Predict the structure.
Amino acid sequence: MTNQIASELQNMNATVEELSAGAQEISAASNDITAISKESSDGIQDIAASAEEQLASMEEISSSAQTLERMSEELRDLTKRFKVDR
């Protein structure tokens, strides 16, 4: 009976050790997932910041294009005043 109890205790101990090792693996995997998630989040924030910068640049370009269009119209109107003799 004592041998049987000792054997059962050893089996239980082995099972607990296996469960503990499994829990450690799950914890390590969870830490890996957390690190990957943070990297992804950082990457997404960088992309969002770049998109904002690009939008601001596009707005500047659009404004400059409108200014150039107005200047072009003014120049065209001014050049109409001149006559070229051939």
Remarks:
- The radius of gyration is 37 Å.
